[in-house]
Amino acid sequence: MTKFSELNLEPMVLKAxxxxxxxxxxxxxxxxxxxxxNGRDVLGIAQTGTGKTASxxxxxxxxxxxxxARARMPxxxxxxxxxxxxxxxxxxxxxxxxxxxxxxxxxIGGVSFKEQEQLIDxxxxxxxxxxxxxxxxxxxxxxxxxxxxxxxxDEADRMLDMGFIPDIERIxxxxxxxxxxxxxxxxxAPEIERITNTFLSNPERIEVARQATASETIEQGxxxxxxxxxxxxxxxxxxxxxxxxxxxxxxxxxxIIFCNRKVDVDIVAKSLKKYxxxxxxxxxxxxxxxxxxxxDQFREGKLRFLVASDVAARGLDVPAVSHVINxxxxxxAEDYVHRxxxxxxxxxxxxxxxxxxxxxxxxxxxIERLIQKEIxxxxxxxxxxxAAPKEExxxxxxxxxxxxSRSRSSSRSKSEGGSSSAPHKSDSGSSSSSSSRGxxxxxxxxxDKVVGMGDHLPQFIALSFDERRAS
Length: 471
Known about the structure:
It is a single chain. The chain has 19 helices and 13 strands. By secondary structure, the protein is α/β, with parallel strands linked by helices. The protein has three domains: 4-207, Rossmann fold; 218-392, Rossmann fold; 430-471, no CATH class. β10 (279-282), α12 and β11 form a beta-alpha-beta unit.
């Protein structure tokens, strides 16, 4: 088995790796690092959680250890799809470059332009950025990319999903043709392949797992759930979520819970907190400082449940996530692989559970087709005979209002002397005035019915035989 000491890395880099507690590289690291050190372009394809970040940070640090950056001209560039992934890459550089004098800058949204410009003005060896913020600085005239020696595109398929491909192509055109390019992705969509054919020069292709496969260390399961009523689906689905968490017991030390929509992220997080679960939300609309604080609490074990949108599906490096729960089946099959890849990392065991409602069956089929296996079905932890919690009981009261309204209407008509429930007794000797009153009553009352005739009784039928002959 290959060891880091056999990869021709600088002693100062090896020392940092050893202090971080690593001895053996992952397959993607063992395959990519030697070619990157030799200056070759690298196309790395590997499932999430396999150590792709170190596959480019280590050779970059090794090669940048010699040389000096000039003002506004970074020597290397790392492009990431999200702020969280960019921040994680920056942490990796801090960990592995602790014994090497390298400067870096992190260009992401939610942070002051002025602070970032001050760092760029001093000159940085490593520039880590999201595409939008990088181009903002370039268009302000605060940044030149003509000095980039090494360019990295991380999570390229996520870039495609988020619509960054035009920005990536533009950024490539702003860098020198002689640069070295390291390109990493979990899947290879046709658009990604087109870019690699255009901008990479005879790359060394390193593929350590079948495209879009889930790690074998992750136990998967799906609960197929149908609500008792359509208007109770959301609350009953949240109840199933709590049931899944409770059924896992102490084995669920922490979990990331994924929702498709940001609004549902907030609702699910608030619902869990209401029922006594230690949970917080993270999605793209939150302030960057709040997102960072929430992530730090989750990493440090101070927060048990992180409810997230897909902004957190890529690049979250929390080594010991015991569970991933898909509150919603993702609409894109590839996102399922990236979501569940947050657990079972670095050889650890993990568990991924998904709640599937009837309208998500097609998306579930797409996922099973992609990963080329059927996901085992798990029994719904909530039995129909169980007492409904307060959340559903409150909704049930609201739903029952129309029934009670109808009941009051019925009782009111009885109390007003409606004759529908009492049979009308006819007397052949009755006077015409009494007959007239009876006719008037029948004509005005909506409650009078003749069996088989419905609610609308023709007036001539209500007349007696003598009255019809007289008319």
